[in-house]
Fold this sequence. Notes:
Oligomer: single chain
Structural class: alpha/beta
CATH architecture of the largest domain: 3-Layer(aba) Sandwich
Radius of gyration: 24 Å
Shape: globular
Low-confidence stretches: none
Strand order of the largest sheet: 7-8-6-9-10-11-12-13-14
Amino acid sequence: MNVFRPEDLLLWTGGRWSTPPTSPITGICHDTRALDHGSLYVAIAGGNFDGHDFVAAALNAGASAALVNEDYEQADDAAGPLLFVPDTKKALGKMAAGYRNGLKGRFIAVTGSVGKTSVKEMTAGILARSGLTARTQGNWNNDIGLPLSILSAPSEAEYGVFEVGMNRPGEIAALCRILRPSSGIMTQVGTAHLQAFVNEEAIAREKAAMLASLPDDGYAVLAKDTKWFRLFAETAPCALVTVSMSGDADYVGIADPVHHNTLIVEDRRHSERSVYALPLPGSYVKQNALLAVAAAREYGIDPGTIAGALSEYKAPPMRWQESELGGMKIINDAYNANPVSMRAAIEAFGDLESQGGKWLVLSGMFELGDAEQAAHAALGEYVAGRGCDGLVTVGKLGKLIADGARGAGLNKDRVFCCSTHLKAASVLQHHLRAGDAVLLKGSRAEHLEHVLEEWDNLRNNNC
């Protein structure tokens, strides 16, 4: 349990107390639904709500105090200490930076367009076998989530692995000033969040800001066989640790031609060759694992410890989440999507062993700006080239994928455009049989998991 002194919070934020709290502050929270007794409640104004409306509820629920904007007027039923600041979101970042400055652990920043959460979880899982390890909570990687994750890190943590995300220019550098990473891992970079950037190079340069933030005595783990390697290598002021699945590097990953869930790593820095069993299929899983292996070996973690951690790795919810429904294999990978991750998931699904047919359920990719139509059409063309027994798309953006697939020659009788989750579920209910496999992939806001819920309801009603 972390205990925060009122005088430290005052110093870090530059605010003022209405009256200092008399009870210990044992956590930081911005959501009354997840509030623990003794926490400091942070009132943040969002696009759809204002956290100041819940200050009274937080204090009455056991918060030790609340962080509020200077113009907040305390209501009669909001009895409790208040820490007034000009901007609560900025103050949250200042608190996290102040707390981070007192931590001795070595922190790793993970950024990229795809694979951040997987690499974070793999790396943290490995390091946790060597010492107390803090990590990003879920995918809290923005200007609210990252500070909260840092503030939840145990003060005695030896390691920390934190995602650094972005959806606008300048965000990575600002977050890294809070995190002060010791080292960094760059996952694959592509056209995610293109709406806020002029092109993919601008995205890569924004991601490179993480590397620029690293200290001279740190290291950067980079995939040598990716498009922006040279830019990243020139940006990092520290030692480079390179990985590759197809060429010369410090750590070379070799796919086992027989055992698809096995990664062989030729460690040229330590003159070793190790074999790692992975719980999930797909070339992108191997690429993510290779990055985690390299980072862990640079921290002195032995291959046996790494192998144990990777064999027990479990993907976060809706990231290649496997289940079964009526004898059919379901792969729910619908947590998020962009052109890079879509192709990676479809490729991995194509390599998956199945006793029956393979069906894709796809929906739109968001934040692509002017490239939206072309990106979805190109994805449809990619689907047609990979082949599948059926394509079900959901929503207006999904229709663009379907049109692209039809135009590239995918059998029109096997392409189904659906406007709702229920209609997509009806297609699956009518066409799929035991032994078939289904992949669901789309942006988080599309809520493709509802297709599974509707499909399950249809099956139960037909029993």
